Amino acid sequence: MSDTQALAAEIAAIQAEMQVKPEIDPAAEVQHRVDFIKTQLLNSGLDCLVLGISGGVDSSTCGRLCQIAVDQLNASIDEKRYRFIAVRLPYSVQADEDDAQRALAFIQPDVTLTINVQAGADGIHQSVMSACADAGLESVAESHADFCKGNTKARMRMAAQFQVAGLYRGLVPGTDHSAENIMGFYTKFGDGACDLAPLFGLSKRQVRALADHLGACAETVGKVPTADLEDNQPQLADEQALGVTYDQIDNFLEGREVEADAQQVILATYRRTAHKREPIPVPSA
Ligand SMILES: Nc1ncnc2c1ncn2[C@@H]1O[C@H](COP(=O)(O)OP(=O)(O)OC[C@H]2O[C@@H]([n+]3cccc(C(=O)O)c3)[C@H](O)[C@@H]2O)[C@@H](O)[C@H]1O
Ligand SMILES: Nc1ncnc2c1ncn2[C@@H]1O[C@H](COP(=O)(O)OP(=O)(O)OP(=O)(O)O)[C@@H](O)[C@H]1O
Ligand SMILES: [Mg+2]
Fold it and tell me: 183 CB under 6 A from ligand 1?
């Protein structure tokens, strides 16, 4: 096989793994994913869904799908057994809190909780930093420590959601879709940790199309994606961190033309983050 053929085969395999369709019917995708959520909840024997709502388009869309799913389940048994619990998880005060409130107004969750993750994230960060210093480990650049602390914030959010799920017999959906999945653009065992991933198989623009179909307002549908994890770079746009645009990632996923340099970044990032998509390695028997 020539290098060109090997590259084409690798791209085709990644596209198949990511399961993104070149075109979608948003109404059909909504019902398909609502049915998926209902099946997962029924099969679990549990009673609720617990999801962090940031104000971004991913959690707005996933949250609305969850609320529709529990509404449909309750209607089918004519009883209010199932609930969707939306969780606001600010680190102190969130700069784009207005967007989060807009998202909640769109989702209309059965229950909304607000859990400030600052004390937990700061506590573990400070304990880690002083333990490393006390042990004489070399100091790391302030920017790198802040980046790592950002991942701790994501893991605090994960811990909070799973505690609520434990308390009230719930599942934790995740908001990872294929444009994030291909780039490994999530915190391992942070927002990447979930019981089900209803948005998988969608590109970012397809997530926006579902949000629009569901009736989200233009601000939510078009909101600039941000992980907003770093103290030193608040509201950093994902596209700046990724080095490619979501349009370029979506074009790759949907099998459209992609500029050569963007394709290189996508492939290199996919390979580097393979460990996040693999099962945990174990020794052979
Ligand atoms: N080759 C390898 N084989 C097995 N494991 C490997 C490994 N390389 C790293 N690891 C492990 O993985 C860890 C690194 O992964 P991780 O902790 O995730 O950290 P990392 O991938 O470095 O950072 C997460 C990235 O995702 C972004 N993010 C996070 C959360 C939400 C969003 C969003 O879109 O909103 C984006 C965040 O801004 C950042 O750019 C290492 O510390 C190590 O434990
Ligand atoms: N401040 C927050 N409050 C509640 N949940 C949060 C918060 N920040 C992140 N999350 C959770 O972590 C998930 C991953 O964040 P991510 O930024 O990828 O999604 P988003 O904010 O919904 O959309 P976008 O990627 O467009 O910003 C969110 O979907 C949400 O479930
Ligand atoms: Mg976000």
Answer: no
Instruction: For tokens 């994030």, name the residue.
Output: 180
Q: Is 195 annotated as ligand-binding?
A: yes
Q: Which atom of ligand 2 is nearest to the CA of 90?
A: 1
Q: Does 136 appear as a known binding residue?
A: no
Residue of the nearest CA to atom 14 in ligand 2? 191
How much is the mean pLDDT over the chain? 98
pLDDT at position 119 is 98
Contact 182, 266 (CB under 8 A): yes
Q: Is the pLDDT of residue 1 over 90?
A: no
Q: Which residues contact 127 (CB under 8 A, 6 or more apart)?
A: none
- C-alpha radius of gyration, the chain, whole number: 20
Q: How far is CA 199 from CA 57, 61, 148, 204, 231, in A?
A: 11, 9, 26, 10, 28
Q: Provide the greatest CA pair distance for the chain.
A: 62
Entry pTM:
0.98
For a pocket test of ligand 2, which of 49, 50, 51, 58 has the largest count of ligand atoms closer than 8 A to its C-beta? Answer: 58
Q: 89-144: per-residue pLDDT in tens?
A: 999 999 999 999 999 999 999 999 999 999 999 999 999 999 999 999 999 999 99
Catalytic, 146? Answer no
How far, rounded to the nearest angstrom, does the alpha carbon of residue 103 sit from its chain's CA centroid?
15
Residue 69 has, within 13 A of its CA and on its CB side, a CA count of: 29
Q: Is 238 in the pocket of ligand 1 (CB under 6 A)?
A: yes
